[in-house]
Design goal:
Protein name: SGNH hydrolase
GO molecular function: hydrolase activity
Largest sheet: 6 strands, mixed
Keywords: Hydrolase
CATH topology: Rossmann fold
Number of strands: 6
InterPro entries: GDSL_Rv0518-like, SGNH_hydro, SGNH_hydro_sf
Order of helices and strands: EHHEHEHHEHEHHE
CATH architecture: 3-Layer(aba) Sandwich
Length: 262
Amino acid sequence: MKKFVALGDSFTEGVGDADPVRPNQVRGWADRVAEVLCAEGEWEYANLAVRGKKIGQVINQQLDQALALAPDLVSIYAGGNDILRPKADLDALMRGYAGMVRRFSEAGSTVLLFTGFDTVDSPLFSKTRPRTAIYNEKVREIADEYGALIADYWRWREFSDLRYWAPDRLHMNELGHTLMASKVLDVLGAGQITKENWSAKIQQPSLPELAVNSRGEKLKQELGWAREHLAPWIKRRLTGTSSGDSLSAKYPDYIRLTAGAN
């Protein structure tokens, strides 16, 4: 039996891909990948990711637990919440990140890493683009040193389409997570972790037509977004709280995940 463990923050937990019958009420790309792995091969799956976690928290709260699970494949994506904090020391944080990858590599796990998304088209997050570029170069250096696979989110320009994003504009929606699952399976297939055609098992829904809104409708949408999503996000930053403070990992132990409810 092969084992897949996913570590990280909201991206890997699956925020934006709502599913009320699942733990934490989200599905996400990692669950979708695991569904294919479990259906097509002898795989088990655990997901330790929790929204809001920064690199140091992933290291302190998820690393040892994941190592104890002795995974054949481990995915790691953390750093987005650090990048949003301009005073974070990325060089120091990425040294810790590299240490995490080293420990999995020494334990015999195949490691899958992600570059950060290019926020060039985002009015709110475009200022973080230079920090994300530095983060990405560090990720590539770490991957080169330890032979890790890379899911190159930065270069996947399809995700610039707003139809792949949730109303909060910070997380992918169901369509985005579904596309990401297909992309990840392509990376795993190219790395000979899975069969090359397993990405075809992900059924990608058709994109809806782009809405054409008047200036007044757009302003109303912007005000609604600011009230519903931006203001709570700013409040959490000011108070030092996180949307994941009361949450636990979705799947802390191995399961055989199916496309239905688990």
